[in-house]
Amino acid sequence: GTGATVGKWAGREHRVPGGIGLARASRSGITVRALSVVNAVGDVLAPDGTVLAGTRAPKPDFARDVLHGELTNTVLTVVVAEAALDKRQVRWLAARGTDGVTRSVRPAHTLFDGDVTFAVALPPAPGAAEPDLSILGYLAAEAVAGAVRDAVRARP
Predict the structure, then answer these.
(1) Rg (Cα) of the chain, in Å, rounded?
(2) Which side of the chain, N or C, has fewer Cβ within a 10 Å radius?
(3) Extended beta strands in 11-142, E state
(4) Up-side HSE of residue 20: CA atoms within 13 Å toward CB?
(5) Which candidate, 116, 73, 80, places its Cα nearest to that of 95?
C-alpha cells in the first residue's frame, strides 16, 4: 500500500494517501473477509456518502487530460469465505465483492482504473451448515466496502 493514493480524478496533484485495508462482515453465523489495496482514481466514501479521503482540489472538476494514459490506478481485492462453493459460485462471489468497490469509491471503475476482485472459498468447518449464497454475496460487498474504507483511515 505504500505509495497508493486516491482522489486523483481532479488531478494527481490533489491526491491523498490510499493504502491496504481489512474488513469482515457477518450475519446469521456466516463471515466473509476482505483485503483491499486501494490506489483508485476516485474518492473513498463513508456509508453515508461523505468523503473519507478524496481530492483536495479547491474547485474539483474531472481532469481526464491529466489521467490520460495513466494505467497505474487500481483497487485490488480478495474476498474470503468459508463455504463449499463451486467455480461458478466463487466467480459470482467475486463479482459481488466488486459491488463493494462501487459502494465505496466515486467515481468507481473508471477507464483509468484496473480494478479486480478475486474470491477464495475455504473449506467450511466440519458440520457447518451450507451458507446461503445470497447472504454470502451481500456480505462480500459489505466486507469489500469496509476494506476500502479501512485502507484510507489514519493509522496510529
Answers:
(1) 16
(2) C
(3) 16-17, 19-27, 30-39, 43-45, 51-53, 74-82, 105-106, 116-122
(4) 5
(5) 116
10 and 57 Cβ atoms separated by less than 8 Å: yes
- Cell 491526491, residue located: 15
Pairing of strands 74-82, 116-122: parallel
The tens place of each residue's pLDDT in the chain, 156 residues long, gives 678 999 998 888 889 999 999 999 999 888 999 999 999 999 999 999 999 999 998 887 777 666 666 668 999 999 999 999 999 999 999 999 999 999 999 999 988 899 999 999 999 888 777 889 999 999 999 999 999 999 999 654
pTM over 0.85? The answer is yes
